[in-house]
Amino acid sequence: MWLIVCIISFYKGGMIMPFWMLISDFLHDLRVQKTRVFLTTFAIMWGTLAIVLMMAFGRGFKHRITTGMLNAGNQIIRVYGGQTSKKYQGLAEGRWIEFTKEDADVVLQSIPQIQEVSPSYGRWGVRLKVGPNTATTYLEAVFPNFELLRTMYPKKGGRFLNDLDMKGKRRVIYLGSEVTEELFGNEDPIGKTIELDGVPFTLVGVMQEKLQMGMSNGPDDRRAIIPFTTFESLYPHRYLRMITIRPNKLTDIELIKKELYRVLGRKLRFDPSDENALSMWDFVSNIKEMNKVFVGIEIFLGLVGGLTLLVAGVGVANIMYVVVKERTREIGIKMAVGAKPKHIITQFVFESLLIAVLGGFLGIFISWGLIKIFSMIPVQNQGLAYLGKPQLSQAVLLTTSFVLGTIGIVAGVFPAQRAARLDPVESLRYE
Question: Are the C-beta atoms of 12 and 327 separated by less than 8 Å?
Fold first, then answer.
């Protein structure tokens, strides 16, 4: 691209030599100085390879971590009860704040910026049993909308909890993939019976495997989930484990947080300014902060790769200075027979740009090949799940092409200007 633009601009300005002559001069130099041209091209190729691969792996890592964050919660806020640190309306500090189902309903009705609310119970140490196989895990009782809020999507052939399960207080259970494998092995588990603390439940779905960043009472792959109403009929729990909230708009996050303190503070009688009364895990803000970190990482990787490419560009400039010195007599002859300074400049800038483009093309091509090979490796099975697969973006290619073109032109302009200023008479005397 840069090479074509440069040729067209020179042509329109009447500066260009015949294209075949430019190629002929370059091929002549290539034959005479094979090692020099190879090393210079290799330096550009290596710099290009470095910047493209670092940016591609950086983007892959960012995508993987962001996906892991979303797998733990899809644009949600998790709200837990805390411990008051201020006296309020005659009540002492140090009180524990605990939620009921009614509190979740009040939050949804009182804060219009909230789209969905999902209360949930939790119970540690429940025992699952299938024949001789047993597993101990964390049990969570939820509403059907929990599937979307926590990205707990089922594998093919199964399902999540539904409204009929809730209304009928059905004894159905939904399991994470890891605990399912412990209980059933390679057997198809859908529709099979599981004993939950001695009570029979029917397995209706198994969650898809997922990378998870940020956990609540362990990974979802080991989670057991039953309907909210079924839990209430089996266990004497009165208080919720947490309330999960999803906003209508992401821009309303801070407003919703303030409103939660106001609404729950009025109902549960704590000071709305007491930040310790509630504990919140804001996934939206966490992802925003994480993205800022990764922007910094991408800039750093780009600078490191860019400096590597810049060093290669300095090498190209040095080589072009050597070429000018070696061709002093040739330049003198050309100028003596009528070649103008702009023709001399064109020749050396073209050769410099051609080296940069050739090295850059090889670097991008090799990078593309390595990225394709790495993408075929099942990283989940190699202990590299958090690394992710590298992503070769259009922005990286365009930026790299721009840097290569700039280096090629700049590396050729200064030696070319020196060549154009040579005195033809003195050049002819040069040995």
Answer: no
Last residue of a domain, one of 237, 269, 301: 269
Give CA–CA dist 302/306, Å, rounded: 6
Report the amino acid identity of residue 61.
F
Per-residue pLDDT of 123-170, as tens digits, reads: 999 999 999 999 999 999 999 999 988 888 999 999 999 999 999 999
Residues forming a β-bridge with 200? 195
Query: Within a domain: residue 205?
Result: yes
Q: CA Rg, the chain, in Å?
A: 34
| Same domain, yes or no: 327 and 366 | yes
SS (H, E, C) 300-361: HHHHHHHHHHHHHHHHHHHHHHHHHHHCHHHHHHHHHCCCCHHHHHHHHHHHHHHHHHHHHH
| 106 and 205 together in one domain | yes
Please provide the DSSP assignment of 218-232 as one string.
S-GGGEEEEEHHHHH
CA torsion through residues 298, 299, 300, 301, sign: positive
Domain residue limits at 184: 98-269
Q: Considering only CA atoms, which of 163, 18, 147 is closest in space to residue 73?
A: 147
Residue 420: predicted pLDDT: 65
pTM value is 0.68
CA angle, residues 75, 76, 79, in degrees to nearest 5: 165
Same-domain status, 203 and 234: yes
Cα distance from N-terminal residue to C-terminal residue, the chain: 38
Helix axes 341-375, 34-72, angle to 10 degrees: 40
